[in-house]
Design brief:
With 181 residues, this protein is mainly α. It is built from 6 helices and no strands.
Amino acid sequence: MEQTTGNFNRFAIPVRMGIVIAIVKMLISTIQYQFFLGSFWANMGFMFLSFVIGIVLFIVTGTQQRKAYGGFIDFKSAFQAIFVAILISVVVSYCYDLLYMEVIDPNMIDKIAESSMAAAEKMGAPQERLDDMAAQFERQKKESLKISEIFLALLKYIVMYGIVGFICAAIVKKDKPQHLA
């Protein structure tokens, strides 16, 4: 399906879009962390917003790649372009989040724990559940900087977004009609 002319670089669009998506996700994260970290529901809203915007921009990546290929793109080429954008955006935004938690706001995990505990308490969670949550946050805080945990979390995000990438590729693929092939 890759019928292009000239010096077409099949990675130019995905790399550029991966960087754009990472910047957008970093801006959303910064707004979330600066202004809404104490609100459990606002945090959930921002996480959902970031996810949806990411999906839309992955579809845009595939659509731009399809245009660059002359209006038609097979599933493999669409997924490849989207997955490159996924890798770049996930790795860059994840590294930014780590940097934010460790350098910019080292008390961030404590703030998240407090807002989550307050939300659970407000919903009537029993004290035993609140104690379990507090212990879980303490474990998370201690283990969050282990290299194995960092790579495992990063891999989890890449796999999750990879599945989303399959769906996005299926949406943007457009096979060349038989009479044009």
